[in-house]
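User: Last request for today: this protein with NDP, please.
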Amino acid sequence: MEYKLLIDGQWVDGGAPLEVRNKYDGRLIGVLPTSRQEDVEAAVEAARRATTVMANMPAYKRSEILARTATLLRERQDDFACTIAAEAGKALKFARTEVDRGINTFTIAAEEAKRLHGETIPLDAIAAGEGYFGFWNRRPVGVIAGISPFNFPLNLVAHKVAPALAAGNSLVLKPASSTPLTAVKLCQILQEAGLPNGAINLVIGSGSTVGEWLVTDPRVDKVTFTGSPDVGRHIMSVAGIKKVTLELGNNSPVVVAPDADLDFVAKRCAVGAYYNSGQVCISVQRIYSQKQVYEPFIEKFVRASEGMVVGDPLDERVDVGPMIDSKEVDRIESWVREAQGEGAKVLTGGKREGCVYFPTVLTEVAPEMKVMAEETFAPIACVISCEDFEESIRQANATKFGLQVGVFTKDINRVFKAIQGLNFGGVIINDTPVFRADHMPYGGNRQSGLGREGVRFAMEEMTNIQMVAIRLG
Ligand code: NDP
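Assistant: Here's the final one, the structure of the complex with NDP:
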């Protein structure tokens, strides 16, 4: 199947072809042109021209386009789910969940488009303001570059596109090179939904060329990026003076208090650690269990890990499909081998079949091992025994990251100790850090990023506050 680039409302050719393959069996599933520098220039220019029409479009029209996009997504739910499963290797049942979430994200944006407003300011609160009337409102920033990763080819694209349009901006979108087909299909739907030419433009190609041209372009007013911490740091250093939102990685911890329901925790942690082969920015990675429940927890967790069905993501029964490519499997194999060399024990998993890495439980780990200190982005969970609750909170916090954390306890005092003690953008009580609703504020502290997504919060980051002071009389 051949696809094209979208520039100024037209599907056009570009440079060298990019082949997209099924991540389980390697079948060719699509070919697209990559964008040359002149294509990126044209896309930014088209977006620039569309800023006026988008900024002047009334809220109800922006809302209608977004609501129609949600309806069209629902109508093509199966096609989107199968495309995600094939190009990202995500188990079909979870690909379906991602499409549901994409529909939610556009529906929420359709609602939020009508609620974007400022407030009045009593300027006469000081003597110099006497005789003035003041209010502030929110104006779209203009052109937004949206750069997305491979692991949620629809919903993480939706988290860039839907709030940007809801707030009256235009966009140039660059999806991950390994999973661009879902983004192409989403752009087709946005056109059908009535989005004006140039309001969304799609460019394709490697981050180091196409991504870099976008990020450094002075006509781009904001970059919204989801991806790895290294690329995030680089973007920050080259973007120049423009707004930047960064949604980066994590090595998400879970704290298990002795009063928790261990059967429930073990099952939730297994899904949270292995879902999408652990290639989720809030995947369960470090589990701190208190020593009095460590042995029974480990036994239940290993059983739950071994209960995950591994195989072809297009098979409805499968929980865990392949990782995105063999290089990633090689990387995680070497991290596990290195940890074993330093004393870690593999209780289950630790093996591969092609690009599938089996759900793996590690114990006897140390904080400085890569499997603990870095983001594994693989189906691996480390379980650590702690003296007491305070110690597990301290260890959970001892990281350079700060996206989300899960805490399992029925004790209200422990709940508040956790909330006050944990330096994370999201604290999830009695579930894993993987919990995310698409309208909640979402984003990381420390090296996990800058700014927040979650439609309303992303819209705030995609607008400038404009102050108006009117001298009366
Ligand atoms: P990468 O950082 O490798 O790539 C993300 C995107 O950035 C891709 O589109 C990539 O293009 C592009 N890119 C790469 N280099 C540059 C550059 N120099 N300038 C501009 N763009 C560039 O991440 P992955 O796709 O491997 O995704 C995994 C990472 O994403 C993990 O670290 C994960 O934690 C994080 N993530 C964070 C989330 C959050 O909300 N906090 C959610 C999901 C994932 P190309 O594909 O062509 O290389």
